[in-house]
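ok trying again, last paste got cut off:
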Amino acid sequence: MQVVSRTHVGLVRENNEDALLVREPYLFAVADGMGGYAAGEIASRSTVKAFEAATYSLRHEMGEQDIRKIMLDAFDKANTHVFKMAVSNEQYTGMGTTMTALYLADANNAYCCHVGDSRLYLYRNDSLKQLTHDQTFVANLQEKGEITEEEAFVHPQRNILLQALGVEEKVEADFFHFTVQEGDRLLLCSDGLSDMLRKQEIASLVGLPDLVQAADALLEQSLDNGGRDNVSLILLDLTTQGEESCNG
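nice, full thing came through this time. structure:
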């Protein structure tokens, strides 16, 4: 397996409010914070840190129900931690964060836990599939068939979240299992990437032969298309050859 991660402040924002978790070879997460000055940065980093601490036992072999419980409990703990920070400090009022987390249990089984609109994609046989469902107002409109994918991409309210970690006392995270195979690529990213690149653009770049080149191209094209937000990504190649990583 090869892993490449990238994060960039973008061309408009002053602070990078994204946070990444790369715990090779099995646990990865992207969080995208929001809030007042520096609060979003604190929310995302605190969430990732709390989630990582609460998932330490995942390295022990266990069944799907155990994995489900650990990951959902970790999201709950991270949510509670950030919510308490927000209510106890006026500077942090209203802060919160998305988070999409990936756990690779073995060579065939993967699990995802998700809140907000950061995304997980699967690239297989030259085809890209979004595995997570954006918890947004516009994504729900698209799911109901009220707007098209292209209309959703340019919709002025596309960033209105229905749920985020740390905003409410309780959160309902999505959790699902999926199978992976030799040669798959997985992309975790913040909406700073997915808001700048259409699905076809992402697919063409994720599939570049060299993984480092693919990750750099995804970042660079996001900036070339406007870079209106922080851009963060983790790109994994599940090919068994080439056991190296490149993070930055």
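cool. Helices lie at 39-54, 64-88, 137-143, 149-154, 191-194, 199-206, 211-224. The radius of gyration is 17 Å.
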